[in-house]
Design goal:
This protein has 94 residues and is mainly beta. The protein has one domain.
Length: 94
Amino acid sequence: MSKEYIIPACSGIKIDVKQGQNITVIDIEGGQVVDFFAEVTNSQNEFLSTGVTIDCNESLKLKIGDTIYTNLYHPMMNFHEFLDLGKRCHYNSS
């Protein structure tokens, strides 16, 4: 089952994603960078960390198959696909 959310510019929403589920982010208007934040359920002290992700992947840019890590160096999700169709990214939760 999939759901679609349209999030207006300068705003955000919370979406619960379970292990094994996918999330696809599409910039439908183009040209805007998407801010993306994730935290571990029931753990307010563990969240997505760009710094740890850069460290573990040894690169400033994500490539297909790279893992996104938490601030505690735990795998959080995989970068699965990038389609340049109005800037579309697809992630799979670990």
